[in-house]
TrEMBL record, chain A:
<comment type="subunit">
    <text>The complex is composed of two ATP-binding proteins (PotA), two transmembrane proteins (PotB and PotC) and a solute-binding protein (PotD).</text>
</comment>
<dbReference type="InterPro" id="IPR027417">
    <property type="entry name" value="P-loop_NTPase"/>
</dbReference>
<keyword id="KW-0547">Nucleotide-binding</keyword>
<comment type="similarity">
    <text>Belongs to the ABC transporter superfamily. Spermidine/putrescine importer (TC 3.A.1.11.1) family.</text>
</comment>
<keyword id="KW-1278">Translocase</keyword>
<keyword id="KW-0067">ATP-binding</keyword>
<keyword id="KW-0813">Transport</keyword>
TrEMBL record, chain B:
<dbReference type="InterPro" id="IPR035906">
    <property type="entry name" value="MetI-like_sf"/>
</dbReference>
<keyword id="KW-1133">Transmembrane helix</keyword>
<feature type="transmembrane region" description="Helical">
    <location>
        <begin position="346"/>
        <end position="379"/>
    </location>
</feature>
<protein>
    <submittedName>
        <fullName>ABC transporter permease</fullName>
    </submittedName>
</protein>
<keyword id="KW-0813">Transport</keyword>
<feature type="transmembrane region" description="Helical">
    <location>
        <begin position="305"/>
        <end position="334"/>
    </location>
</feature>
<feature type="transmembrane region" description="Helical">
    <location>
        <begin position="211"/>
        <end position="234"/>
    </location>
</feature>
UniProtKB/TrEMBL annotation, chain C:
<feature type="transmembrane region" description="Helical">
    <location>
        <begin position="97"/>
        <end position="121"/>
    </location>
</feature>
<dbReference type="GO" id="GO:0055085">
    <property type="term" value="P:transmembrane transport"/>
</dbReference>
<feature type="domain" description="ABC transmembrane type-1">
    <location>
        <begin position="62"/>
        <end position="250"/>
    </location>
</feature>
<keyword id="KW-0812">Transmembrane</keyword>
<dbReference type="Pfam" id="PF00528">
    <property type="entry name" value="BPD_transp_1"/>
</dbReference>
<keyword id="KW-1133">Transmembrane helix</keyword>
<feature type="transmembrane region" description="Helical">
    <location>
        <begin position="62"/>
        <end position="85"/>
    </location>
</feature>
Amino acid sequence: MPLSQSNIRFEKVSKAYGTLRVVDDLDLTIDEGEFLSLLGPSGSGKTTILMMLAGFEAPSGGTISVGSQRIDPLPPHRRNMGVVFQNYALFPHMSVAANVAFPLEMRGTPRLEIDSKVARALDMVQLGAMKDRRPAQLSGGQQQRVALARALVFEPSVVLMDEPLGALDKQLREQMQLDIRALHKRLGLTIVFVTHDQSEALTMSDRIAVFNRGKIEQIGTPREIYDQPRSRFVAQFIGETNLVEGTLAEAGDAGATVKLEGGGTIRVQPSDLRPEAGRILVSVRPERIRLGPDAASENAYPATVTDAVYHGDHLRIQLDNGAFGFVAKADRKTAEFNPGDRVMVSFAPSDCWMLPA
Amino acid sequence: MSETSLKGRLGALALVAPLVLFLAIFFAWPLVSMLKESVSDPVGSHAFPLTAAVAGDWDRQSEPPEALKQAFVDDLRAIDDQQLLGDAVRRLNSAQNGFRTLMSRTIRAVEEQPEGPLDLVAVDRRWADVRFWRAVADSTNPYTDRYLLAALDYERDASGRISALPAETSANTAILLRTLGIGAVVTLACALIGLPYAMLVASVDGWKRQVLLGAVLLPLWTSLLVRTAAWFILLQEQGLINDTLMSLGLIGSPLPLIFNRLGVVIAMTHVLLPFMVLPIYSVLLSIPRNLMPAAASLGAPPWRAFLRVLLPLSLRGVVSGSLLVFMTAIGYYITPALIGGAQDQMISSVIAFYAIGSANWGMAGALGAILLVATLALYTVYGRLSADRAGGR
Amino acid sequence: MRAATLFKLLFGVLAVVFLIAPLVAILPLAFTSSVFLTYPIPGYSMRWFNELANANVWRMSIINSLIIGTGTTLLAGTLGTLAALGLRNAGLVLPGLFRTVFLLPMVVPAVVLGVGMQVFFVHLGLANSYAGVIAAHSVVAVPFVVVSVTASLAGIDRRVERAAASLGASPFTVFRRVTLPLALPGILSGAVFAFATSLDEVVLTLFVAGPNQRTLARQMFSSIRENISPAIAAAAFLFIVGTLLIAAIAVLVRRRTEKMKQPAEA
């Protein structure tokens, strides 16, 4: 496989089961060395894309290529991609070392070389001491790391991961996220990572492709996805947000003004969005909302606190200004809020993002 | 212990007790009486109670004491159950040839002189031979190991040592070996068909899986007799198989398919195949679905993935299935009895022959004990295996 | 890949034919007009079914099978169901031992058990009696009942029973209104298994039954052995049709119970 120009390209790829189109006319390029997350709810087609890339599902139409070579006609065992499966798929009848040695044996690697490579791969995931155990004798996190070592030991340039951390508890999962990220950097791997956990995708990826109903809703860096969502689906799937409906009253280079449904206006950051009939949604993230006794910004509204819930590191405050409701996150140390309190709600125009209604 | 939990325990026991009692009487007790038959030898002690009482004082080597001789004569005078006497004579004759004529002469002499001491050597010279007295004394022991020994083709010679029976009378080892042989061939045939079949069932889904599973379950649910009768019809000289082969011109005269080993193996393989397919199938279902894709992603071509992953993982099912089939096969009676010839009878047929045909409970019991022990041993191994599997998950 | 698929198909078809063909082949012979059990069939008639219904040996054996089968179903069904309920009770000591013992009659070779019963039943005075045959059949039928009822009891969610208790039902009411109805399919299929086992039993019958308790299976056995006639095929026809009917009912019952469970899970 040519190393120079080995980005992965999906061109017009679709996959249908009967009349159900799971993947619809997909165009996607994955750069060499990139960490790309495929993020979406279950049934959005993200796992199918991974399975097509690994060779377990054949596309109904379109082509998949790596560099200049088409790979969609290749059987899975000739694709040379490491795959980390959901629930790991370790061979229960083989020891940890035999599991890791398996791909090397399949490639006819000499015995001595196998031993040293297996030892190195197990050291890399800190499981050198466990090499003679059976998978059933390991904890979930250890099994996960064996699966990782097995997928990396034959030095594939592309590693595919299908919800690899889904079965781990929260702390272990966060540790593994950092470990995988470090491995990615150190080995210069191309990683395609399927997940339905948006925070996992945000912390790990170079780019995120958000999937909905077999199509890419948006692809971009974690910042772009979080700060500049291009659709209601993306805005709501990634993090929490306040969405208000309105019409675009005026737009210029300095910013735009949106007339709200229930009266009043919002100044928003400049955008090239020019919706037909002027219908528009404005998204404001709860943590960007400031609460105080007085107006501190262009966008300021009086509101009543309807509920305040303690969340440990922050307070989650439910607000109502008569026309629309808000959710805000506030530092729990700044002030106390109680239901019935009257406050001023304000947010900077640069924290207001327009998207199509 | 709280009152409720005690009540709960008693309640549970009360629910289980009727079946325990039932099985104790109608299952365990019959097995025990069968085992007892295999070591009991009551005829001598019933027929010659006085002899039995003094037989223990004699060392079996020296000249038999007068008391023993007198007790034996008194026993012969006292006996009035002609059937018991006949049985006793037969029992003695089977231990020592010549007793039939010796006893009829002796009984006549005893009848002629109903009282007082009787010189037996004068009646017949053979009473001077210590071997005949040894047979009489031995026959009064109510327990014997000769059936168990005979079941394995051994006997005790005149001096009480265990020795192998001469080849021409040693039928039982041949039958035991034949039983094991037929069992092994049937098990192998079931494994050779059952493993690929179970894999086929597990590899398809929807209606195909239903059909394949149904094809296994329907024979399993169908009466054993019906299946055996069906094979009888197919295999007989003018049966469907021979007719078809002849009309195709493949053979000129009917093949001998019935009343021989081939027919027994075919019919038993058909009957026992479900016991091989179902355990393998259940093991295959428990194998995670992503292991074969994992092997492929690691570079294994389909046949190597099969050899290294699927086959070793399904082997456990093959072992369970084989034990089940073998265990059932060695106890089979109906199929060999109906499809097999005289040379294809297995241990069960011989047991049935001794029990029903010749009323020889001792031999039936002894052979039954061997079969029972073998079956229970195999079942224990099978139980261990399935317990391991349940615990290992 | 093509060749492998073709091979799979061929193997599958051959194996299914091997499994099913014997059962299919015997069916048409039930309607032969000839006295031989061979193909081609010269003409069709119901004479062998008439023979079953009218010839004394066959009619008696069918009646005997029904009597003994019913007795076995009641005896093994009751004992097995009670024992399965006891096995489910957490208070039972050594449940594993009981379970193993209850399954043993399935393992012990029939001829061995038969010899023992023949010897022992003479002492009990049960030789050549209906009670003896029913007891013998129940011994080998009871494991099926225990397995079947245990399985259906294991499928009952304990929380349903606890819910009933929390709603004010006494233990006996919980059992009668919740446990028993939910276990009923298992009890019924256990009963069917018990009846079928009795119907098909030959070996124990050979050892413990007298001429008056000759069952249909026993009659078929000696008929195949001594003078085989198409009456065998007619009897086999009844057996196979009966099996299919029972299987169909079992599938229907399972469908219904699954439907009953589905909305709760969705």
